[in-house]
Amino acid sequence: DQQVKQNSPSLSVQEGRISILNCDYTNSMFDYFLWYKKYPAEGPTFLISISSIKDKNEDGRFTVFLNKSAKHLSLHIVPSQPGDSAVYFCAAITGNQFYFGTGTSLTVIP
Amino acid sequence: DTAVSQTPKYLVTQMGNDKSIKCEQNLGHDTMYWYKQDSKKFLKIMFSYNNKELIINETVPNRFSPKSPDKAHLNLHINSLELGDSAVYFCASSRTRGGLTGELFFGEGSRLTVL
Predict the structure, then answer these.
(1) Which of A34, A54, A62, B2 has the CA that lies 20 to 30 A from B79?
(2) In this complex, do B4 and A43 lie within 8 Å of one another by their Cβ atoms?
(3) Do A102 and B44 touch (CB under 8 A)?
(4) Is the CB of residue B10 less than 8 Å from the CB of residue B108?
(5) Cα→Cα distances B63→A110, B7, B17, Å
(6) Is B81 exposed, middle or buried (0-12, 13-18, 19+ CB in 10 A)?
(7) What residues 49-78 of chain A have any CB closer than 8 A to a CB of chain B?
């Protein structure tokens, strides 16, 4: 039972443009959402998070939006840079449990 | 200094063998985890360990057992390895139980291949 879904396995964006990564979830009890970034042969690293009581959190070039009524989360990266090319995992927390999506591979084309 | 380190990074072994993967964190975190990333890239929690409390994902076979000699270490032992155990195993740690700060620190992963 996959409670967090990333339906786009890959995304390609031109350098300087906006990258939008999407995530859907099914459990309304999730109280915290996160994005992790993963380079090949490395572990995921925390990128940005948002509490369920907020609808937006911004950190530099990264902004996460939360639409609770739609159970939808998105990560915006603007402007996109080649170094942003990685796999991005969406995750959600309830209680002690983290639930991860299957990831979206972002390629930023120079 | 690597915050969360796992060894070995690669492990190739035969079916039926017993193997261990070690994990150490130097962040002073209270909680450590083991995740399995399968062929579909799905990161699934296996265990979380906070001081004396072990929380086990009920879907994990009992051939898998975590061992924590101290707060900074959480090793993963696997008995009677099966082909389906082939995956990348990630160790992680967090400051608070459940990672309520939202931040898990992951190791680099250990790729296990069972032949």
Answers:
(1) B2
(2) yes
(3) no
(4) no
(5) 47, 19, 11
(6) buried
(7) 49
* Residue A34 scores a pLDDT above 60: yes
**Residue B102: its pLDDT value, please?**
55
pLDDT in tens, B30-84: 889 999 988 777 788 888 888 767 877 778 899 999 998 888 999 999 999 999 9
Nearest CA to B76 among B115, B35, B43, B17? B35
pLDDT over threshold 90, residue A104: yes
Q: Find tokens 């360990």 and name the residue.
A: B49
**Number of cross-chain residue pairs from A and B with Cβ atoms under 8 Å apart:** 56
User: Do residues A78 and A19 make contact, with C-beta atoms less than 8 angstroms apart?
Assistant: yes
